[in-house]
Amino acid sequence: MATAMVNHLAELPAPLAMVLSYADAARATLDEAAGLLREEIQATELLLAHAFSAIAPRDGPALAAAAKLAARVFSDAPLLPGAIRAAMGLVASVYALPPPHAGTLEDARLILGKVFDDHHDATWLFRLYANCTPNYGIQPGDETWQAWSARNEEAFHEAAAAETRLISAIWEARHAVRVHRDYQAQSRRREVAWEAKQILSTATEEVDAASVAVRRMRDALAAEEQIVREAIGEAAAP
């Protein structure tokens, strides 16, 4: 039973590496989308600067040009609609893609859930082993058990934290796309770049926090595996 648990634990780093890979890919996608939104924001700021510098003329061709520029500045239309559409397409890809994929963040969350279940199975095996082999020096409450329990609880805690962060990042990404659609319906398209960029910043922070939790989970699982291996070795010693 203990050997089966070790085998279970030894298989978990590979899917966790996939979780981190998907999280890194999602972060890169969100960064790219934020860059496109920055282009719209910078273009608007530049146009505003030119508009206000052109207000001084009071007559002649310069006045007509200034009026035309001001009308464009204060319209609802974004200056770079293609950039905003591309940004929202990128954002949507982190949570929704055509089957069999579900988006990079959704894929990360699904794999993490499978790791959680496998770790739960490994935990059950070790508890069964400890309770069924009292003469092998591994008993609930002893030093080995306490060391294992601490790392085991840490791994579960970090798994829950990572899942919470991934769910939050997915929600923020969906929110950014919803905001884009709502602003289009309300003819407030110019404002979407500013708000969506702030939302993406929060989503990126959540992805980063999820990655930190996954790495901590990975370390706790490695320590847990080491404790179990040592316990097996001591139990097998003459």
TrEMBL record:
This is Os03g0419900 protein. It comes from the Eukaryota.
